[in-house]
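Section 3.1: Structural characterization of target chains.
Under the original work plan, the team committed to producing a structural model for every single-chain target entering the pipeline before any wet-lab resources were allocated. The record below documents one such target. The sequence was received from the expression subgroup and is listed exactly as submitted; it comprises 172 residues.
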Amino acid sequence: MAQKIEIKRALKIAEKVKELFSDEVLEINLFRGQLSLVVRKIRIKEILKFLKNECRFNHLRDLCGVDFFPEKPRFEVVYNLYSIYEKIHIRIKTRVDEEESEIDSITELWETANWHERECFDMFGIKFKGHPDLRRILMPEDWEGYPLRKDYPLKGQQLWRGFKEILETKNE
């Protein structure tokens, strides 16, 4: 019963977002009790700011990338938000072209976005405009390519320089 009430409240919020950002909201989906809004990336920061400030989604649970290769647009950035006050979860999705794989950073809304955006950049190559320190976080700085892209070679593209040094030391 509590889950149905939460879903009703989340749907009400989704409708409010649709009303305020009518040109930006492409879809509202409810699947297995989880609400998702698919929006255009052009005003993603404004939409997320509204959700944080007006709808009390005070917690960014996660931000991740998805690769739909060979579809176009190729990438999707997914924001999982939670309102601790309302006990509601909502997912915001937006598509990003490979050619212009750039989207606004939301680090000024949620500080934790700093790490999530860096990971998304490191694994998919999606750039976050206005990020304070956009650099690799998991892979070495000199790594070439983006390991979670579907067209990334399964065996990797290279032997990382640090790994080569380890192999050379081991063989001596």
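The first strand starts at residue 25 and ends at 31.
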